[in-house]
Design a protein that fits this description.
Length: 323
């Protein structure tokens, strides 16, 4: 049985850090309010010349170097993003060009904060279906560019960055002992479209628009949706919370992360948290967290790693990987 095995990982952050103290100079907020409600202490903000594609390219190069591969070894690039450099061509094709890759296929995937989970699930389906052998999966965002910097209820929450993994087709036995993606569970429900959205677009206003969110409404649904797809992953693989070595959640809010882990019975020392330093980087948050915990030696080869995300749409999903 073909499995999609993680061969490399990498990440990239903008140069500029914006602390909560600096945020206090922009809107009527306080470090105390932000930390207490979200767990965020700082975020990275893209500067001149830093874009979703440039950050994605840096993350991709880091993942290729770690995997000891070159762009010639890839045949698929999927970029999860809601903040592409341009409406088209796709940021994935831009990155393909930046890497000097003249073969294979590249496309973007738009599922907001669940984008990376959707992209890993898609790459896994391509690999298991024989359409690709080695896929570069990137989550890259510059949410700072779609924020309303006068709206304190949203601008304090988000940041910029990118992360990437390389998935490679390898023969497995078909059991949970295999390395690679063991299951992916994806969901969406457009009835929630007005709770977290961008108030512009090519076909409506002809503008980029700004992020709008009913924070309490998002919060209300988050824990239930996250636990639903994680329970579904357990059911699909016959695993339980006790088997999980690391939960790597989408990094939106410390209270959502802690609430989900508690409901699932996963101890907090098995949860990777980076929202304190990265803020919410949407589709980039999971690969940034993966890079952090795999680079510092917490996530090791053979560990069972649960990814989960929930975001605009709403979309939500989980992926269970043996690292
Ligand atoms: N600084 C200071 N005060 C603020 C700020 C701020 N940045 N933002 C809002 N407030 C005020 C509000 O105006 C309100 O004041 P009022 O009581 O005088 O009206 C008060 O704080 C409470 O506001 P709430 O919105 O009720 O605060 P809440 O406790 O719900 O926290 C938050 C807000 C952090 C946004 C929370 O609702 C949340 O985390 N929601 C989930 C949002 C999220 O994670 N979204 C991303 C997930 S999907 C994705 O990643 C794209």
């Amino acid at each position: 049985m073909i499995r999609s095995v993680v061969r490399g990982f990498g990440a990239a952050l903008p140069k500029r850090v914006m602390t909560n103290k600096e945020m206090e100079t922009k809107v009527d907020t306080s470090d105390e309010w932000i930390v207490q409600r979200t767990g965020i202490h700082q975020r990275y903000i893209a500067g001149e010349g830093e874009t979703t594609a440039s950050l994605g390219e840096s993350a991709a190069r880091a993942a290729l170097a770690r995997a000891d591969l070159t762009p010639d070894d890839l045949d698929l690039i999927i970029v999860a993003t809601s903040t592409p450099d341009n409406t088209f061509p796709a940021t994935a094709v831009n990155i393909q060009n930046r890497l000097g890759m003249r073969h294979g296929a590249a496309f973007d995937m738009q599922a907001v904060c669940s984008g990376f989970v959707y992209a890993v699930a898609t790459a896994d389906a391509y690999i298991r279906g024989g359409l690709a052998k080695r896929a570069l999966v990137i989550g890259a965002e510059t949410f700072s560019r779609i924020l309303d910097w006068s709206d304190r209820t949203t601008c304090v929450l988000f940041g910029d960055g990118a992360g990437a993994i390389i998935l490679e087709a390898q023969e497995g036995s078909g059991t949970n002992a295999d390395r690679g993606v063991l299951t992916a569970q994806l969901r969406s429900d457009g009835i929630h479209g007005d709770k977290l959205y961008v108030d512009g677009g090519p076909s409506t206003t002809g503008t980029v628009g700004h992020l709008r969110m009913e924070g309490r409404e998002v919060f209300k649904h988050a824990v239930g949706m996250i636990t639903d797809v994680i329970e579904a992953a357990f059911k699909a693989t016959g695993t339980t919370a006790d088997d999980v070595d690391w939960l790597v959640p989408h990094q939106a809010n410390r209270r959502i992360i802690d609430g989900s882990a508690k409901k699932l019975g996963i101890p907090l020392d098995k949860v990777v948290v980076t929202v304190d330093v990265h803020g919410n980087t949407s589709a980039a948050s999971i690969p940034l967290a993966l890079d952090t915990a795999a680079a510092d030696g917490r996530i090791k080869k053979g560990d069972l790693v649960m990814l989960e995300a929930m975001g605009g749409g709403f979309t939500w999903g989980s992926v269970l990987i043996r690292w």
